[in-house]
Amino acid sequence: MNKVITCIDGSIYSDDVCNAGIWVSKKLNKSILFLHALEKNHVSVVDDLSGTIGFGANATLLNEMASLDAHRSKIALKVGKEMLNHAVNIANENECENVEQTQRHSDIVEAIQDLEQDARFIVIGRSGKNHDHSFKAIGSHIEQVIRHVHTPVLITNRDFTDPKSFMFAYDGRETADKAVKRIIEGGLLHNLTCHLVTVKNGQKDILEKFNQTKSMLIDSGFDVKSSFIEGNIYNVLMDYISENNVEMLVMGAFSHSKLAHAFLGSNTLKMIENTNLPLIILR
Length: 283
Hints:
The protein is of the alpha/beta class. The chain contains 9 helices and 10 strands. It is 46% helix and 19% strand.
């Protein structure tokens, strides 16, 4: 677990993802690995048309289209390498040590899973290159990444800057307790002000668990600002963020249960879609 996998895709978030990866790498003293995945987003022209226009008189045309597909793939490969070189240059300018890059011919989720065995953190942009101008459009693979990897994920925002504070929404569930342990043991969030917020819910002894969590964080050296509040989970958390100048969000990962997702995952998705803050998902 020695690398910060930082996903570069050519979107308007690429430099911000790069800067966020650098921040994580330096805080954890881990090497940074810039990853670009060459995904096949379309069926090749030849495969799409060969069954309809036939061969014979059209064989020359199909060969030309096959050549066009090959040329387009070569260009995509070259552009990807240039993006990776650009990211490496930014990391070098920021005096990062142990900077690596890799390009994979696969879906980004598959590429991350292949590299995850040696991953300490994953950094990805909140939307992909096909949704550059839609703030609410999260990248099509973000939920898949969160659900299928076991490594902490940082979903970055535009104009990323090193955060000085974070909010952790503690709900008293097992995933939240695991996330608290990650916060304390992980090192990335040390020296940042922790806004510990709990929205009253149906969990047994939630207030007692909230106070225990607060004590654990304080005993571990965190500067904690705590709030136990009531109301609609999503609404009160969004209000707290805007009223307290929170700079980063930290949440537990989605549950694999479809029923749990209906009540928990939906709030996480809303947070991703509607806040212009970097968000860390811990499992």
